[in-house]
Give the backbone structure.
Amino acid sequence: MRRVQLQVAGFTPLLTDAMSDEVLTGLTTGARPQIKKDMPFPDIARTKIYRENGEDGAIGLPATMLYASLVEAGRDVPFKGKKMISTKDSTRLTPMFFHIHEEFLAFPVPEGKEETLWVVDRRRGQLDSGGKKTAVALIRPKFPEWGFTVTVDYDEKVFTESTIQKLFFEAGANQGLGSFRPNCRGTFGCFRVAKWTDITPDEWTQAASGEKAASNGNGEIDEAKPTNRLKKAVDGVVVS
């Protein structure tokens, strides 16, 4: 296994549309809450922000959103011959071979500010109800600048480093995150990997060397040539 830490930076603004606890409860009980007609737009948008641990928590995105983006991107990334990482119905990005450590991807907070900066985005949308389309006003928070740090483990016996880099490139360019993203025919939520750092623990590298030695009939690690920790920091990801 390899472990890498990625600094991800958004290169188009991000729209979010988190479902509030009140709406979730309404879906369970069947009594969906109504938005007050005189509710200020910033208050409406604020309810659609993803936060960690409640209303006063850090702003960001659930890691499941990144995972979903990577799975969809895998339909365009080969890893063995003509086989793709993902198909319409399945994916090779299972926890056995690929794992995201964080459950929540917090955005950075600008110096001197209390939280990540956002503005109200208001635009026309369509509600499809039983085949009948009705124009609606969509009010959501927009993040002009956003990003996060994420830690990923992957099995190098299944995926090469280049394959994982291509996977993130494809996800950031053609899938995106949040609302009105590229795979929803929008332009929001595109991202890139600004920094890629291999932080694989020493013991993992040593264990892998031991397995290789055993497969060669040796069975012992050469103590005269200890395995050094691989440290790699690349500004940007160059996909060949």
